[in-house]
Predict the 3D structure of the following.
Amino acid sequence: MAEGSFFEKIEKIKMPIRILILVGTLVLLGGAFYFLVYQPKTDEIRRATNEVSDLKLKVMKAKRDSSRLPEVKAREVKVNAQFKQALKLLPNEKEVPSLLRNITKLGADSNLEFRLFSPRKESPEHFYFRLPVSIEVSGNYHDVATFFDKVGQMERIVNILNVSMKPLKTRSTMLITKCEAVTYRFKGSPDEKAKKKKKK
């Protein structure tokens, strides 16, 4: 009876109102579906799509970087080789006495007589130490030139600076030559680091 009266009440409702109720119900159901189901899923899909895009970019970058790896390694090998070559040009602390002996030997081989060979205190520069040696030799001009040439051909960097010459005696072909031989060594060499560790 209650059921019949319910339908009777619905039948009494005018058609436009029924349509409005139906449309309202559909709108409510549609809104509920949109906010409760569709929107969260859409956001989730968007997040997943963005993550996939990011991952694709990362994979592409990784592939690009991996393709450049041989080039980077080759460059590293080249730089290391250049650095080792540069180290060869500058003596380390242990090699300095040997280098100085070689310079005196070159002078003796050039028929020069050493009157003075005095290593002076090293002075620090930007990334290396400057090691000056005061030199005074006697010999003729040709022998002095030969000595300077031999020093210039040494594997290690040695610069001859502040050269002055004067005859041993008036009208003598024998000269007294004074100069400064300067070599260099890197700061932070293994010898330097070992010394610092010992001081600590």
